Design the sequence.
């Protein structure tokens, strides 16, 4: 996991494992939606999630193009965009895939304003 808002495309024509910006026709809209979420999240907006084992990983503004981060062939985000005209972004909300129950109130506080801002944009 990480703390970042990722947007299409996750797949790239070269299928290099990382570092390829795979721009969609609606790139500006996806960036806008990702920024709307990330800019209200106290950790995400820093662009430095500081996840264990990935301390050097950074995401300017808390957002990333999926394929630039890592290439995913056949992912649902791209499939839904291409075949169902569904605009979706992927929200990585925690370094920990299964946070402890005691940490959930803090996660809610970290994401509440982001969720409201995102809903307003939608």
Sequence:
């Amino acid at each position: 996991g990480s703390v970042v808002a990722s947007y299409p495309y996750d797949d790239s024509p070269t299928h290099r494992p990382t570092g390829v910006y795979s721009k969609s026709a609606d790139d500006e809209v996806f960036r806008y939606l990702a920024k709307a979420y990330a800019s209200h999240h106290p950790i995400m907006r820093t662009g430095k999630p500081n996840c264990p084992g990935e301390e050097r990983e950074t995401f300017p503004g808390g957002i990333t193009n999926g394929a630039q981060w890592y290439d995913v062939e056949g992912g649902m985000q791209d499939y839904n965009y291409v075949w169902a005209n569904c605009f979706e972004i992927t929200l990585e909300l925690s370094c920990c895939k299964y946070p402890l129950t005691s940490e959930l109130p803090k996660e809610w506080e970290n994401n509440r304003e982001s969720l409201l801002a995102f809903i307003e944009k939608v």
Summary: Strands lie at 2-7, 63-65, 90-94. The radius of gyration is 14 Å. DSSP finds four helices and three strands in the chain.
